[in-house]
Amino acid sequence: MKNGFTMRQTLRGIQLFVAAYEELSFTLAANRENATQSGVSQHVGDLEETLGIKLFIRKLGTVKPTPAGSVYYAACIDILNSYEKATLAIKPYQEGRQGEIKVGLTPVMTRAVLAPAYARFIKENPNVTISIIDSYFGDLTDLVRTGELTFAIVPSAMGTKGLRTSLFGKSPEMLISGPNSSLKHGKFVRLSDVGPLNLAIPGLTNARRRMIESYLTSNGVVVRKFAEFDTALGSLDLISQGEWSAFLPLMMLKASDFEDRTYTINLIDEPGLNLEMFLIEPARKMLDETAIAFVKFLKIEFDQSAKLIKYINPKSRKK
Fold it and tell me: CB atoms < 10 A from the CB of 78, how many?
């Protein structure tokens, strides 16, 4: 290969050689490949010089392949075919956005909201790489502040030094109990009227713990005993065993949770309890187009969860 030749120039030379071989004319090859006759001749000449062998016999404006030219032609066809396959292979990835984002979500966001949002986003933007970290408020806040995460969605706006915070959305907390609970599935419930609860609650460092404790104290909710379960999925598993209840936001539930009756699900009434979720990002940076788009996909799925309220009987609301 001549010094200074690029792979692109070499590929172009092969394309022009193949055209000349098939047309048996530099002029016809030039017309076919939108090139000039002199350009085709130059590229073929460069190939011959690089390879150290004649590919064509030139005579009276026509060209005739040498035996080496015929062998080289067959090899070049394979090269061009492979190049075409490689080009077609990446074509789906040329659609949509590009880039890499690292996202932090708390467990209440990952059970029902994340998967459909991720699947739809990647289908439209196949060349974006998304890394998801499932953790809690304190850890995610630190990771966003240091720039290790592009953004996070967390259930608290506290400790915002070095961060830009905005409200992502609100989701009502539900009382989730076992399938044999004395409560009526899909109805409003006033917790001050409910007998003593065996309640699974988040750990002390969980942002939702303070909210739940404040609600219990302010509304005279009687709790027989607590189980400190700092795992949302673990709480659901405990609840399904029968004797325990927990507060979990509506956005964490799926339609099948209401339909299959694995749990007894009640919307808390008078007063209700809502979980606010916040988008946090480094104050020193702005989210790029790709990150903003993924936030929108998450928000669509988050908002979709509100439709699960259709499973709650509005007539059961206490006046």
Answer: 9
Distance CA 34, CA 28 (A): 10
In whole angstroms, what is the distance from residue 247 CA to residue 199 CA? 8
pLDDT band at 3 (very low <50, low <70, confident <90, very high): very low
Residue 270: DSSP 8-state? S
| Residues 176-200, mean pLDDT to the nearest whole number | 91
The alpha carbon of 241 is separated from its chain's Cα centroid by a whole number of angstroms, namely 33
Distance CA 77, CA 70 (A): 11
pLDDT at residue 4 greater than cutoff 70:
no
Amino acid at 27: T
Q: How far, in Å, CA of 278 to CA of 169, rounded?
A: 7
Contact assessment for residue 29 and residue 5, using Cβ atoms and an 8 Å cutoff:
no
| Per-residue model confidence as pLDDT tens digits over 40-76 | 999 999 989 989 999 999 987 789 999 999 999 999 9
Q: For 25-77, give the DSSP string.
A: -HHHHHHHTT--HHHHHHHHHHHHHHHTS--EEEETTEEEE-HHHHHHHHHHH
Query: pLDDT-derived band of residue 319, with 50, 70 and 90 as boundaries?
Result: low
pTM of the model: 0.75
DSSP, residue by residue, 213-261: HHHHHHTT--EEEEEE---HHHHHHHHHTSS-EEEEEGGG--HHHHHS-
Query: Where do the domains of the chain lie, and which CATH numbers do they carry?
Result: 7-92 (1.10.10.10), 98-316 (3.40.190.290)
